[in-house]
Design a protein that fits this description.
The complex is a heterodimer.
Chain A lengths: L4 E4 L3 H9 L4 E4 L5 H6 L7 E4 L8 E3 L5 E4 L4 H6 L1 H6 L1 H8 L4 H6 L2 H6 L50 H7 L3 E6 L2 E6 H4 L18 E7 L8 E6 L10 E10 L2 E10 L6 E2 L1 H7 L6 H12 L11 H21 L1
Parallel strand pairs in A: 1-3, 2-3
Antiparallel strand pairs in A: 4-5, 5-8, 6-7, 6-8, 9-10, 10-11, 11-12
Helix pairs in contact in A: 5-8, 10-11, 11-12
Chain B lengths: L5 E8 L2 E8 L4 H8 L18 E4 L2 E4 L12 E3 L12 H8 L9 H16 L21 H7 L10 H23 L1
Parallel strand pairs in B: 1-5
Antiparallel strand pairs in B: 1-2, 3-4, 3-5
Helix pairs in contact in B: 2-5, 3-5
Classes of the chains: A alpha+beta, B alpha+beta.
Chain lengths: 330, 185
């Protein structure tokens, strides 16, 4: 590991100023991803600015009835929060589906959004990777890619975003709040992650030097009828091979509102807008759910070893929406 | 100016204060084992994937291999050496002994620190990934074998002593819950 300076900061403006003064500095939250990547030399900061003690560790109600989640709230505290569990249950479920109890106690909401892909070529410093070493190539396309992207990828990178939390946030139209030396700003999650294109090393639209200060969940009574489901290669403590966050409001058998987001299929949490359009105003039946999934997955471009994700995601859509529709009918 | 890459820090471990110089790259795990001779905490994968290095930070379980020592300053660290009350084993330790919750024993300190936290987290009403209904109105889920397996999934046991580990955690949790009831009564 490269040597580095360490500085703990106690307020947001200090954090932004310290980072801005050193182009080689990085923010440290829980460290569950960054420290791991520093050990292998993938991340090589010259200074860590420890933001874990910033006063951003609360989940608060917003005046309009939404929630503001501070950036240093741990995954554990987020998933245990009564208002999150009551009003945005898919978010609690998504967070609980990720990592282990130990890691959830350490990891923070801000860091979760900025975690890096677990693509084996990205983490292997001995080989090429366009995300780690721009222009060096993407061995995954011809190589081991059974858990890589089927949507929104490019010929330069087929890595997936590993977050479970982010998938639920996408379904809830979350907004990321940040601070820079020039003042605060906001980015809807839909615009937070950049398209892969030919620049897979550029992952977010956050301005240079910005500190994520929180995530806003807009008010949405329908969010109480939400669920997260994750499929993985073992029963617990593994990254998804496919996951889904679904929100469904059915009235008299008709889909009044639906939101769907997919995980582990793209370089970012994938909001399934085509499927939502296909369903809204139509019948809440298994056939309609399957047709909507097909509408979304028509854009899928599978590689030789990850084509299973297309029927997997289709089945997940049907299963989860059917469950939510049956609950609504009770 | 290049920043200093080491610091003199004070760690609070099992209620005692230790002042030591550390290179900032030092993890809490290495500080415990290599600097302070507290070798009860074990190094397994050193990548946050196996749980052998689990300790409690401010009462909550964490993997000490991904925790920088310098960033642990000011927090209360509890290691396996601080779990027993003198010569009297903690009920979780006793349960692991009674039920053979191990084979080679290497993962056991991490398993026990994790189990301590699992019992606290469950008592605090935290749901898990296998909890059917996470809404607070649903109440806390019973600590079934499925719940224990899910909550302990961050601790790997290469010997495969999971069956006994689950039983040990269940026994310790039940003893703790019963004990609490007696105090209340």
């Amino acid at each position: 590991m490269k040597e580095f300076g360490y500085q703990r900061v106690l307020d947001v403006s200090e954090a932004v100023a310290v980072l801005g003064a050193d182009p080689d500095a990085r923010f440290l939250g829980g460290g569950t991803n960054l420290v791991d990547l520093m050990k292998t030399g993938i991340e090589r900061p010259g200074r860590l600015v420890d933001v874990r003690e910033l006063p951003l560790d609360r989940v608060e109600m917003t005046p309009d009835g939404g929630l503001l989640i501070g950036a240093t709230v741990t995954n554990s505290d987020l998933a245990a929060h009564p208002e999150v569990r009551r009003r945005y249950p898919a978010l609690a479920q998504a967070v609980l589906a990720g990592a282990s109890g130990q890691l959830r106690n350490m990891a923070t909401v801000g860091g979760n959004l900025l975690q890096r892909t677990r693509c084996g070529y990205f983490t292997d410093v001995a080989g090429p990777c366009n995300k780690r070493l721009p222009g060096s190539g993407c061995p995954a396309i011809e190589g081991e890619h059974h858990n890589h992207a089927i949507l929104g990828a490019s010929g330069h990178c087929v890595a997936t975003h590993p977050s479970d939390m982010g998938v639920a946030l996408a379904a809830f139209d979350a907004v990321v709040r940040y601070e820079t030396a020039d003042g605060p700003g906001e980015l809807p999650l839909a615009d937070f992650y950049l398209p892969v294109g030919d620049t897979p090393h550029l992952e977010t639209a956050l301005p240079s030097g910005a500190l994520i200060t929180g995530v806003i969940l807009p008010p949405a009574p329908v969010a109480a009828h939400s669920r997260y489901r994750k499929v993985r290669e073992r029963a617990s403590y593994a990254f998804a091979i496919g996951s889904i966050a679904a929100v469904l409001d059915v009235r008299d058998g008709v889909v009044h509102e639906v939101r769907l987001a997919f995980g582990a299929v793209a370089s970012r949490p994938w909001r399934a807008l085509e499927a939502e359009r296909a369903l809204t105003g139509g019948p809440a039946t298994a056939e309609a759910f399957a047709a909507a999934a097909d509408a979304e997955l028509a854009a899928a471009e599978a590689l030789p070893h990850n084509g299973y994700k297309v029927p997997l995601m289709r089945n997940l859509v049907v299963a989860l929406l059917t469950e939510l529709a049956e609950e609504a009918a009770r | 100016m290049a920043p200093s890459t080491s610091s003199v820090i004070t760690l609070t471990i099992n209620g005692e204060k230790y002042t030591l110089p550390v290179d900032h790259r030092t993890t809490l795990l290495d500080a415990l084992r290599e600097h302070l001779d507290l070798t009860g905490t074990k190094k397994g994968c050193d990548q946050g994937q196996c749980g052998a290095c689990t300790v409690l930070l401010d009462g909550r379980r964490a993997v000490s291999c991904l925790q920088l020592a310098v960033a642990a300053e000011g927090r209360d660290v509890t290691t396996i050496e601080g779990v027993a009350d003198g010569d009297r084993l903690h009920p979780v330790q006793q349960a692991f002994l009674d039920l053979d919750g191990y084979q080679c024993g290497y993962c056991t300190p991490g398993q026990i620190c994790s189990a301590l936290a699992v019992i606290e987290e469950h008592a605090a009403g935290w749901p898990s990934a296998v909890t059917a209904d996470v809404r607070p109105e649903a109440g806390p889920p019973p600590l079934t074998a499925d719940e224990i397996r899910e909550r302990m999934s961050g601790n790997l046991c290469r010997c495969g002593a999971y069956v006994s580990i689950v039983q040990a955690v269940a026994q310790a949790a039940e003893a703790q819950a019963t004990g609490t009831e007696e105090v209340v009564a």
